[in-house]
Amino acid sequence: MRTIASTLTLSALLALGTAAATAQPAGYTGPSNAAKPAAQGSYSGPSNVPLLTVKQLLDTGKDDQHARLQGRIVSHDGGDRYTFEDASGRISIEIDDEDFPAGQTIGADQRVELLGEFDKGLRKTEFEVDRITVLR
To answer: Against a cut of 0.85, is the pTM above it?
Structure first.
């Protein structure tokens, strides 16, 4: 009987811990305040991926083209969808949770550089983010 009670208690604690770890804050206060896994190293040197404006990307970008954008993430539109803005315009972007910088919260007023791939389709156009760098 003691073993069953211990097992049930352990199961309940694990379930509560999992729920707390995956809970999302109500409302948009930035991408996420949840703890991120330990950061992996990444390259920080020069890049041959072109730095473009949103307007340049929308006007001349090709499907699957790699690009860099600099500006601000101005809103969270639900799930992994956000809106990005620079001086030339706005574009819908997709950011997976693991692509946010580890240990950093990004607000709508912070300038960032996005590295990713342009997805130009018949019904939707968006920028799929692979890496975010906070600009100082």
So the answer is: no
Q: How far apart are CA 37 and CA 90, in angstroms?
A: 30
Domains plus CATH for the chain?
Answer: 49-136 (2.40.50.200)
Cα–Cα distance between 128 and 117 in angstroms, integer? 5
Helix/strand/coil for 96? coil
Query: Tell me: the pLDDT tens digits for 17-62?
Result: 444 444 433 334 464 444 444 445 566 667 789 999 999 999 999 9
Which of 90, 110, 113, 87 has the alpha carbon at shortest distance from 30?
Answer: 110
Q: In this structure, what DSSP letter does residue 51 have?
A: B
Q: How far is CA 79 from CA 63, 87, 95, in A?
A: 23, 25, 9
